[in-house]
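Shape is hard to put into words, and the shape of a protein is harder than most. The fold becomes a row of whole numbers, each drawn from a learned catalogue of backbone shapes. The outcome of that step, for a single protein, is printed below.
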Amino acid sequence: MTASGPEQWVAVDERLAVFAREDAVLAAARTSTEVTRPGIEVSRQMGRMLHILAAATGARRVLELGMLAGYSTIWLARAVGPSGRVVSIELDRDNAAVARRHLEDAGVSAWVDIHCGPAADVTARMVATGVEPFDLVFIDADKANLATYVERALELARPGALVIVDNVVRGGRILDPGDDEQVRGVVRALGALQGDDRVQVSITQTVGEKGWDGFAVIRKVAP
């Protein structure tokens, strides 16, 4: 048996990329170097999974925390179609401008709303103003504030909605977060979900072109 390691993980992802085919617009968003942190966008398979989950659940309203160059946003917007709405929150205005160009190139910008600012502040305003509930929430923002983001997502989601959180295994560091505030934020969020009767939670470890990590799928089952 061939030894497993990062090089093989990447090779397998390349082999499986046929199941997450990209057009030129998606590829440009995924490989953009114009954003503040190039290379941290979701993987191709994660983008396809978001698209499938949104389509399979019939999501019409999607909330996204963290859009970077708009890669995951395009996948989600194509899933909901022009009769739906994607509301994306991005901290950095320059990133948002890059994402908007990619959304326009993809032909989906008409049904994507972008809010610039800290996700905690933007979602707090949404809760306060009583926006229409969301069918699916995707969280890919900083992890130090993840517990707050998950709680806000649950407040803003309808019963039965899905909340998907990327990067929750952190290369296994959740076992010993030390003084890494990003990892500690994940641990706090996962701890808050334990015993929460409002939700069902599944967490999957992943390896691939993005390294060793994982994602959480949270289903809101009660208000």
About this structure: The CA atoms of residues 62 and 86 lie 5 Å apart. The beta strands are 61-65, 85-90, 112-116, 134-139, 157-166, 199-208, 211-220. Helices lie at 6-16, 24-30, 44-56, 71-80, 93-106, 119-129, 146-156, 181-193.
